[in-house]
# Entry
Amino acid sequence: MRKNKFVGFLILSIIAKLSLNAQEHIVSLDEAIAVALENNKKLKVSQTSIEIADTMYNQAMSAHYPTLDVEVSAMRMDQAPTFTMVGSTTVDNSQTIALYNGLSGAAAADGNAFTSGVYAQTAANTPATSSLPINMEVQMAGRDTVVSNINTKLPLYTGGKISAIVEQANGGRKIAQVMRERTKNEIIFDVKRYYYGVVLTKQLKQLSEDTIERMGFISDLTSELYQGGSMNVKKTDYLRTKLSVSLLESLNQNISEKETMAKAALLFAMGLPYNDTIDVQDTKLMDPNMGASLTTLVEDAYHFNPQYKTLKLAVDIQEAKIDEAQSGYLPMVGLSASAQHIHNDYEYGVFNETNDRSWTIGVGVQWSLFDGMRTTNQVEQSRLEKIKLKQQEILLQEGLALQVKQAFMKMQSSHKQFVILSEAVEVAQENRELNTRAYQEDMVETKDVIESQLFEAYSSADYYRSIHDHALAKANADFLVGRALEDSVK
# Structure
C-alpha cells in the first residue's frame, strides 16, 4: 500500500513539475517563424554542414602553400657499429735502397769501411717492392644517435590539379549554403502551413459555435411555436432542430480536435516543448491576391530554387573534375629542401664534426608518359557525368515548372472560389436573417429556416477554406520558387 502511494505521489509530482515548466505563447506569423528559425534543429545541422564544407575548402587551399615538416628520432643500437678491413698493399722500396746506398758512400768517404759495408749489404738485401698486410677494425659510431630533420616542399606547377580541387571544394561550400537556404525555406513553409491551419480551425470553430447558438434559438422557438398550437410546426420539426443542434455540436468537437492537432504541429515546427500551449494572434488570413504571373514564378524558380541551384553547382563541380582529370596529361614540378643534424655519442667516426650537419635543395619533375589509358578514361568518365547532370537539369526544369504550375493553378482555383463565395456568404446571411424573422412570425416552415442556417454555415466554411487554400498554395509557390515570404498574414 505504501509503495502504491509513493508511486502515485511521484507521478503527481512529475505532472505538477511539467505543468509548472509549461509556458503559454501567443504569436504572430513573423514571431512564429523567428522562433522556429532559432530553435529548429534541422537548421543547426545545416549550419554544421556549412562549417564542414568550409574546413574542406581550407584543406584544398592549403595545397597552394609550402609544407614544413620536422622529424626527430632517437635510437640505441645493441652495439657500436665497426668497419673491418682485411688485405695488403704494395710498398715501393726504391727510396729506401737509395738511402742505404747514400749512407754507405758517406761512411766509405769517412774511412769507415765496416759501416759502409753494412749499409751496402742492407741495400743489396732490400727488394725493389714489398707487400704490407692491412688487417684492422675501426669504430664507426657510438650506440646512441639522435637524428633531426626539417623538410619543406612547394608545388610549382601541377597542370591545374590544385586549382581544380579548390574549385570543387568551393562548389561544395556553395552547395552547403544553398541547402541551408532550402532548410530555412522548409521551416518557414511548415510554420506557415500549421499557422494557417490554426487560423482556419479557429474560424471554423467560431463559426460552428455561432451556428449552434443560432440553432439553439431556433430549437427553442420551434418548441414555443409547437406548444403554442402553430399549424406549420409539428413535433417532427422540433425533433429535426434538436438533431441539427446535436450534429453541429459533434462537428464542433471534431473541429476542436483538429485545432488542438494544428497547434501541436505548430509547437513542433517552432521547436517548443510539447507541453507548452500556443495560440495565434491573427483571427483571419489576408484576402487572396494573385500577384505574379505563372511565367514570372517559373523564371524565378529557375533562378532561386535551391534544388535547381544545387544541380547547377554540381555541373560546375563536375567541370572542375574534368580539369583535375586532364591534369594527368601534364607534368608536375615541385621544389624541395631539407636540413639534417645528427648527434652521436662517439666523437669521431662517421658522424664527426664535418658530417653531423647537412642540407639539400632541389627541383623535381614527375610526368606520367604512359598509364594504360587510365587518365584518358578518367577524363571521359568526368565528361559523361557532366552530360548526365545536364540531362538531369533539363528534367528538373520540367518538373519544377510543373510543380509551380500546379501551385499557381491551385491559387487561381481558390481565388475564383473566394470571389464566388464572397457573394454567396452575403446572400446566405441575408437569407438566414429573412427566414429567421419569417419563422418568428410563423410564416415559413421549419425546414426552410434550418436550411438557411446550414447554408450560411456551409458557405462561410467554404469561404474560409478558399482563403486558407489560397494562402497555402501561395506559401507552396514561395517554397518552390525559393523565396519564402513571412508577410502572408494580414
